[in-house]
Amino acid sequence: MTLNVYLSGEIHTDWRERIIAGAEGLDVTFSAPVTDHAASDDCGVAILGAEDSKYWHDHKGAMLNAIRTRKGLADADVVVVRFGDKYKQWNAAFDAGYAAALGKALVILQPPEHDHALKEVDAAALAVAREPEQVVDVLRYVLTGALPR
Length: 149
Known about the structure:
By secondary structure, the protein is an alpha/beta fold. The protein has helices spanning 15-22, 37-48, 54-75, 90-101, 119-124, 132-144; strands spanning 3-9, 28-31, 78-82, 105-109, 127-129.
C-alpha cells in the first residue's frame, strides 16, 4: 500500500522535513503547498500582472495557490495539517475543513496551547499529534502495523 500524504500548514519551521526524513523507507509520497513565502504571496502578480490594490494582489496569489492546494488535497490519502505558534494559520484551518469535507484521513499537528481553539478541527481528525515524529509513527503504523520503538 502506498500513502499519498499532503503536508499543509505553517511554513516557518522544519516540521515537513522532519516528517519526510522520518518516513524514509516507508511507501509514502508527499506533496505540499509552495513553501517559499515570497513566491506564494507574489505568484499571482508575477504571472498575471501587477495590481494597485493589496487585496487584488493577494487574491490573485490565493487563486493560483488554490489550484495546487485543491489538487494536493484531492489526491491525498492522508492530510497532515500543522498549526504553529508564530502566526494564525487561517489557510491551514481552511485546508483542514476542506480535507474533512472530502472525507480525507486528517492528522492535526499542534502544540497543546491550541487545543481549545482547535477543538472542532481536532474533533474531525483521526489523530492529533504534538511532534512531527508522532506523525511518522502514525504513518508507519498505518502502513506496517508496527508500534514505535
